[in-house]
Backbone:
């Protein structure tokens, strides 16, 4: 049994570069969604490869510039901005802004490249937006007059290529109605990762998007489009392994027939996407084999919501014991960036970067 060490995230930069290269060959422009994993080494590697960045705050903008990003290749994609945020970003060289309201549009500096986010269906995604962002088509068409194009997002971890195709068609109808004949078309993020279930390859999503653009051209909605994609999860998830340890394995007679396995990393230390069991990370126990049995996986805090998997079936070795190391695979996205600064005294999730 290994000596106990605090939980940490191990990131492989080579995997990030491999995924970026794959995506860059399929779309006109790639903007990395910084919120997925703002680790400076990741930003530096992507900037060196020529990747652009989708930023949502002054801090993300500063991190990208510190990593060597060209400000002209940044997009301020969060349409919820504080007073002066857009002007400050513009002064630093950012020109592209995504908006979805008349109130926000009025704050954007003259000379901005504006994309209007259109509300589209995000059914089937692991974490839908539930209407928080995006303008309804009629309003979007009004806002888009005189702008550079349109944007969509079909929800995070979206496994259906058809969702992208439907969203593209809806957005390009809006662009055509607004008189934007050759729009920039930002199809957002949401490209899925195979956690415990297979998903279509990224090429299938690219084909769905490009076929939808061709269909929109064929019916005269637009003359063409420059297709931009904003992957976050797809670029970094498979590059990361979250290393954690078992604190306790308990039988709970009269409560649950399964063993309860308490880990030293839970929802507040980086596993926020287990809320609602939306994301089911593959779990591996190095050095333990043999028969396996069902478990409930829980985090270390005294919060009742800090249970990772109660409904989804997980089975771990029957000889699992306190002190064993446990690896959560494909955990490079939305873990370190979601970790709290110290809930219950547990610190942020350290990141160890390797080539």
Residues:
């Amino acid at each position: 049994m290994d000596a106990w060490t605090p939980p940490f995230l191990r990131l492989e930069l080579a995997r990030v570069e491999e995924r970026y290269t794959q995506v860059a060959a399929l779309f006109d422009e790639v903007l990395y969604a910084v919120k997925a994993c703002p680790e400076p080494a990741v930003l530096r590697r992507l900037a060196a490869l020529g990747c652009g960045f989708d930023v949502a705050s002054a801090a993300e903008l500063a991190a990208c510039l510190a990593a060597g990003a060209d400000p002209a290749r940044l997009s301020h994609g969060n349409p919820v901005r504080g007073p002066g945020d857009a002007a400050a970003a513009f002064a630093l060289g950012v020109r592209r802004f995504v908006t979805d309201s008349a109130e926000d549009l009025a704050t954007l500096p003259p000379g901005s490249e504006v994309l209007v986010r259109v509300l589209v269906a995000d059914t089937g995604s692991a974490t839908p937006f539930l209407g928080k962002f995006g303008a309804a088509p009629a309003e979007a068409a009004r806002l888009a007059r005189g702008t550079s194009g349109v944007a969509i997002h079909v929800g995070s971890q979206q496994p259906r290529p058809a969702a992208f195709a439907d969203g593209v068609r809806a957005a390009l109808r809006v662009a055509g109605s607004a008189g934007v004949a050759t729009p920039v078309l930002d199809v957002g993020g949401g490209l899925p990762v195979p956690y415990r279930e297979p998903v279509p390859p990224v090429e299938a999503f690219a084909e769905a998007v490009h076929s939808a653009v061709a269909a929109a051209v064929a019916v005269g909605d637009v003359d063409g489009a420059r297709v931009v994609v904003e992957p976050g999860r797809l670029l970094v998830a498979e590059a990361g392994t979250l290393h954690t340890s078992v604190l306790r394995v308990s039988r709970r007679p009269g409560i649950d027939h399964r063993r309860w396995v308490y880990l030293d990393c839970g929802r507040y230390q980086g596993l926020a996407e287990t809320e609602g069991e939306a994301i089911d990370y593959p779990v591996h126990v190095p050095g333990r084999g043999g028969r396996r049995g069902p478990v409930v996986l829980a985090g270390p805090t005294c919060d009742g919501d800090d249970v990772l998997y109660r409904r989804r079936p997980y089975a771990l070795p029957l000889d699992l014991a306190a002190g064993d190391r446990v690896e959560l695979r494909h955990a490079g996205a939305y873990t370190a960036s979601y970790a709290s600064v110290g809930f219950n005294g547990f610190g942020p999730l350290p990141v160890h970067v390797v080539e």
About this structure: The longest helix spans residues 161-177. The chain is about 25% helix and 25% strand. The chain has two domains: 12-237, 238-354.
